[in-house]
Design a protein that fits this description.
With 208 residues, the protein is mainly α. Helix content is 72%, strand content 0%.
């Protein structure tokens, strides 16, 4: 139930209720019978912890989720857990986030799961090292998300995330005494957020 309803609770911002249900479910006898559901529930739990300001507990929970996912040996599950972990690393450790997202892409490709691959590509785009890579990867991920029919994550990629990155970079540029690369304040120009066409997943995946 927690694995299935987790996203619903998160979208309603019911973090306290979700955390309560997840903890209760994980604590009942036999909760480890289906380790894949346990790993997914743990990932949902990390978003509740993050939203409630309990980030210091987050990495321990992610550690458990990753251990479980690797033991299950399901490529799709491992991709899901790794892209969740990558998302949590974006702010403080973008290099680690990029590496985790790359591995998530790999396992989604092994699973031959276009939906999982497209979401991992979105996470990888947000871990871009500079403006040029961001532009390229946003177009690439947007194409994959469109093809997979995941319009929710497509909107999340094209609207809030690049805008937040642009605004925070602009603020840092104004407040810093050191000059910054001007390209970093233009990463969310409208013309740079268009959906690319004609790039196949396999060709793009081989380039990364």
């Amino acid at each position: 139930m927690c694995a299935g309803l987790g996203l619903y609770w998160l979208m309603r911002n019911d973090y306290v209720g979700a955390l309560d249900w997840i903890d209760r479910a994980l604590g009942v006898a036999g909760a480890d019978v289906d380790p894949s559901l346990r790993a997914r529930s743990l990932c949902r739990k990390t978003w509740c912890l993050w939203a409630l300001g309990r980030g210091d507990e987050l990495h321990t929970v992610m550690d458990e989720a990753e251990v479980v996912a690797r033991e299950v040996a399901s490529p799709e599950l491992l991709s899901y857990v790794l892209r969740t972990r990558a998302a949590h690393e974006l702010s403080d450790r973008p290099d680690a986030a990029a590496a985790l997202a790359d591995e998530a892409l790999h396992w989604a490709s092994v699973a031959d799961d276009d939906w999982a691959f497209a979401i991992a590509a979105q996470t990888r785009a947000l871990a871009s090292a500079d403006a040029a890579e961001l532009r390229e990867r946003v177009d690439w991920a947007a194409t994959l998300l469109q093809q997979a029919g995941n319009l929710y994550i497509l909107a999340d990629l094209l609207v809030p995330a690049p805008t937040v990155r642009c605004v925070t970079t602009a603020i840092a540029t104004r407040t810093s005494r050191r000059p910054r690369d001007p390209d970093r304040t233009r990463t969310c120009a409208p013309k740079q957020l268009g959906v690319a066409s004609g790039d196949s997943r396999d060709r793009q995946a081989r380039r990364r």
